[in-house]
Specification:
Blueprint lengths: L2 H19 L5 H9 L20 E4 L2 E3 L2 H11 L6 E5 L5 H8 L3 E6 L2 H13 L4 E5 L14 E4 L8 H5 L12 E6 L5 E8 L5 E9 L8
Parallel strand pairs: 3-4, 3-6, 4-5, 6-7
Antiparallel strand pairs: 1-2, 7-8, 8-9
Helix pairs in contact: 1-2, 2-4
Length: 218
């Protein structure tokens, strides 16, 4: 391993310790964060800041989310190995890589073509098999539904109905699909977890407040 590679590896370990101190206790999430090279998902000019716990610009007025936010959303979603998880807002591809590191099947939709293409290349170079599509994330991915989990990485004014209806139905053996989505206006959003409990029935709970770029249709 090169000196730079060892440097980033130490920084990843330090980031995991920082996230643990900030309240992320799910070891499977921390292990995934510690395994994903975040420096690969930012421009070379930003790599020195890759392991700061902060959001960074990635172009197209979008950001790679703060590591704490990624860890919090992932823990709130509670993905389990082999589950089918849909991500709305591929962005840099970092969240998708964290999910891949947890052993789930990742489907992801991005509305900016340049980000979609760049994220696909980076994820492929790291050996992750991700099903990626360029399109309107507010419509989900009906052709691949249902999903055990859906995670939205942009702030929504309301919860898009297509995402709710693409959650897996509960069965005798397993609970229904979960949707994790930040909901609110431009001044900030509250993280919501919505669980499908019937054909038209859902249960919701609220988590912490965050600030995301807006979820845009079309």
């Amino acid at each position: 391993m090169s000196d730079l590679g060892r440097h980033f590896r130490r920084q990843r370990a330090d980031l995991v310790d920082e996230l643990r101190e900030k309240g992320i206790v799910e070891e499977n999430v921390l292990t995934a964060i510690g395994a994903v090279p975040r420096e690969r998902f930012v421009d070379s000019a930003m790599q020195a800041r890759a392991y700061f716990d902060q959001a960074l610009p990635i172009g197209n007025s979008q950001t790679i989310s703060q590591p704490f936010t990624v860890a919090y959303q992932t823990a709130f979603l509670d993905p389990r190995p082999s589950e089918r998880i849909l991500e709305i807002g591929t962005g840099s591809g970092y969240q998708a890589a964290v999910l891949c590191a947890m052993g789930v099947r990742v489907f992801t939709v991005e509305r900016h073509r340049a980000l979609h293409e760049r994220a696909r290349q980076v994820l492929r170079s790291l050996g992750h098999r991700v099903y990626a599509r360029y399109g309107d994330g507010t419509q989900g991915w009906q052709a691949q539904a249902p999903f055990d989990g859906i995670i939205v990485t942009a702030g929504a004014i309301g919860v898009p109905d297509p995402l709710l209806m693409q959650l897996a139905m509960p069965t005798r053996d397993r609970a229904g699909g979960r949707l994790v989505i930040p909901v609110g206006g431009g001044k900030g959003q509250v993280m919501k977890r919505i669980i499908r409990v019937g054909r038209q029935d859902f249960e919701a709970e609220s988590g912490e407040a965050f600030r995301f770029v807006p979820l845009v249709a079309g």
